[in-house]
Amino acid sequence: MEKPRLDRSAFSIKKIEEKGKNRAYWMSKTPIERLAASWYLTCCAYNLPYRSDIKLDRTAFRIRNFEE
User: Fold this and answer.
1) Which domain range does residue 31 map to?
2) CA-based radius of gyration for the chain
3) Distance, CA of 13 to CA of 6 (rounded, Å)
4) Total structural domains in the chain?
């Protein structure tokens, strides 16, 4: 799978009353395609590399017993 590219000419500024039927488009896609698109947008927002494995930072979590 190649990295998707953002077509900036496909967007325009609209009022809330003029919003498109975006939900029908995304529901026509497979769950894998929707997850891939959401991961791409997350990578763009947080400046993460698209194709690398992100490791969990285990220093932020603490293991403890349920009773504590």
Assistant:
1) 20-47
2) 18
3) 16
4) 1
Asked if residues 25 and 60 have their Cβ atoms less than 8 Å apart, the reply is no
Q: pLDDT tens digits, residue range 18-49?
A: 666 678 888 999 999 999 999 888 888 888 88
Q: Which one, of 33, 31, 44, 32, lies nearest residue 5 by Cα? A: 44
What do you get for the CA distance between the two ends of the chain, in Å?
46
Which among 39, 59, 57 has a CA at the least distance from the CA of 49?
39
Q: Is residue 26 part of a domain?
A: yes
Q: Which two tokens stand for residue 4?
A: 């998707």
| Separation of alpha carbons 48 and 50, rounded Å | 6
Residue 50 vs residue 45, higher pLDDT: 45
Spatial CA neighbour of 26 closest among 35, 17, 39, 14: 35
The pTM of this model reads 0.51
